[in-house]
Design a protein that fits this description.
This protein is α+β, with helices and mostly antiparallel strands. The chain is built from 10 helices and 6 strands.
């Protein structure tokens, strides 16, 4: 039996007008346009599933190098599904799969495009938000703060990230931008000043590096700053939730550990960030960096 590999990928800057022939570790392949911005690589007549998996890994490596060389985003899924003659094709168009060569590629469920709102429900909300936001003096005042303006931009951008990991990291980035920047206690600051004096005896380059790191210790940590921000605006329960979400983000970024319930974490982080921004934008008395009177 011979096998076919179909590997969709997302390359927003490319629109392939015709089939493009390529060679992947000795196998002939075709790149063709699917539903833009989705394209796909098809490799046919592979001798075994193992050979198809090897080709898939080679495609992933090649796409990574191409992405770096071109300085553009090319995204392909991490895993490939192995299908027999009767297993339904993946419901997600971007999911790579290996199947028998003579298997029909007709899908039981076809997606015609991105999910759209029901206009009868969404349009009134859009109009209301547009009009009330345009009138809001408190929102105008709040958005004059550069950090809040950046946070709102990141929140919007998070919807355009295609992976849940990127969306989650971007949303936690909103909280990092808005975090409290309180100084540490006077005793801690005096201790840090003592360390700053001691490093003068070091080689200039090393001393400069340590000097910057020590000065950063004069403010509370990022996690503490985020927790205080949420506590001030949304209360202690939300602050505890955000503390857990930030710990998940740290493991994802620093250790590459993907949380087992990432979609739930993403949903919760999006809700909290949305709630926080709405609170700040609706109340000009609670500006970024200000304390309750």
């Amino acid at each position: 039996m011979q096998w076919r590999l179909l590997a969709p990928f997302i390359a927003p800057k490319f629109r392939f007008p015709n089939k493009v022939a390529v060679t992947v570790i000795g196998h002939n392949a075709i790149i063709r346009q699917a539903s833009f911005p989705l394209s796909e690589i098809v490799v046919e007549n592979l001798p075994s599933v193992d050979a198809a998996q090897e080709v898939f890994l080679a495609i992933k490596r090649g796409m990574l190098i191409a992405s770096i060389n071109l300085s553009c985003g090319i995204r392909i899924a991490d895993e490939v599904a192995i299908l027999d003659a009767v297993t339904p094709l993946p419901g997600q168009d971007e999911r790579p799969f290996i199947c028998p060569q003579d298997r029909s590629l007709a899908r039981l469920v076809m997606k015609s495009g991105p999910v759209e709102f029901q206009m009868s429900y969404a349009l009134p909300k859009l109009i209301h938000g547009l009009e009330s936001g345009a009138r809001s003096t408190s929102a105008a005042l709040a958005l004059s703060d550069q950090r809040l303006a950046l946070a709102c931009m990141l929140y919007t951008d998070s919807f355009f990230e295609t992976s849940p990991e990127a969306q989650f990291i971007t949303l936690i980035g909103v909280l990092e931008v808005l975090k409290e920047q309180d100084p540490v206690s006077q005793e801690a600051e005096q201790l840090i000043d003592g360390w700053l004096n001691e490093i003068r005896q070091l080689e200039p380059g090393e001393a400069q590096s340590l000097r910057g790191r020590l000065r950063s210790l004069k403010h509370v940590s990022i996690g503490t700053g985020i927790r205080r921000l949420i506590y001030r605006h949304l209360g202690p329960e939300r602050a505890r939730e955000v503390q857990a979400l930030y710990a998940i983000r740290s493991k994802l970024v620093h250790e590459g550990e993907r949380p087992p319930r990432l979609n739930d974490d993403l949903r919760q982080s999006r809700y909290i960030v949305r709630e926080l921004l709405a609170k700040i934008l609706s109340d000009s008395e609670r500006r970024i960096g200000q304390k309750d009177m």
